[in-house]
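Quick start: what a row looks like.
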Amino acid sequence: MAADNIGLTLTDIFILKPDSSGFSKAMLSASSLNPKFIQLVANKFDLQFVSPDQEFSGNTCFAQNDSLLPGYKQFFTKADVLNIVFKQHNKKRVKADEMVHISSHDFNQLQSESFMNENDVSLYIPDQKKKLRKIMLEERDSMPRSERNALSENICDQIWSLIRERNVKVLHSFLTMGSEVNVLPLLQKALDANITVVAPKTLKKRKMQNLILSDMQKMEAGVFNTYHPADADEYTGQYDLIIVAGLAFQNNGYRLGYGGGYYDTFLAKHKNACKVGVCYPFQILEKVPLEEHDIKVDQVIY
């Protein structure tokens, strides 16, 4: 082994709960980096770590090393560490006791690929979001259909209880696509209860048109592989409840969307509506990367 190479197990790198079946990227994304790992890397590779902004705690390690590039901060993220882990272990799950070898070469690659001025965190956030979206999409798509169906049914039951509790008259909801939480049975149930259901039509330039849904069987294809109610009237009023999908959520309501910015724009216009995010349990993370325009939901159901 090279002199600048260190060998670590997953439990050396992450704070983990016992799991004999191993850990996927999504599971590790929901885990914090081990402070001892941060200190070990700092000592081994002569990096001085400083405390990051609170919003990035557990997800980002900032390191100052002026010999690399004066005036800049070299940094690596939890997503970067995950890439190192799964590049060495080319499989979906890695067990807690499996070894991961990390060298200065790994950090030099990260340092040469991306820099940020210490006063401009926003340069870094979009890249972190992009990496996390890829991880979460891959994990969600790999879920067995039976598991998705069971979790979706439970989520819909919870939302229905909320609808009855809040006496919802007008409901806005996304229309399920791919491996997303299936809310379509819930929407049919709302229609049967004479609740006004509104669904989005995706337009270009980050705009949505909100259409009244009257028949689950009458849909038409839209842009970006979306679909929406066919021959439907536009709704321009207020909402009692808005159901929002996402790729990852924090328990406090901050959300990682798909990158189009549609829902941030929409939610900002409906401050009085109850906003509920829905996702599978593995999509709840300790922290998600945030920007100023990101709007959080009032509650996350999973």
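That is the whole record. The radius of gyration is 22 Å. The longest helix spans residues 145-165.
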